[in-house]
Amino acid sequence: MLFGVRFSLRSLDQLVDSMLETRHEFGSLGKDSAYAIGGPSLDEDTRRDLQMRRFRKQAMLGARETAYYAGLFKRLNLNPAKLSYEDIARFPLIHVMPYVDDWRFWLTAAGVAGIDPERGPRFDSSIAAYRAAEEGLGLAIGRGLVLGGALESGRLVAPFDMRLASAHAYYLACAEGTENVRKIAAFRRWLLAEVAALDIEPGGRQSATG
Question: Which of 71, 75, 92, 132 is the most exposed place for a label (fewest CB within 10 A)?
Answer without folding.
Answer: 75
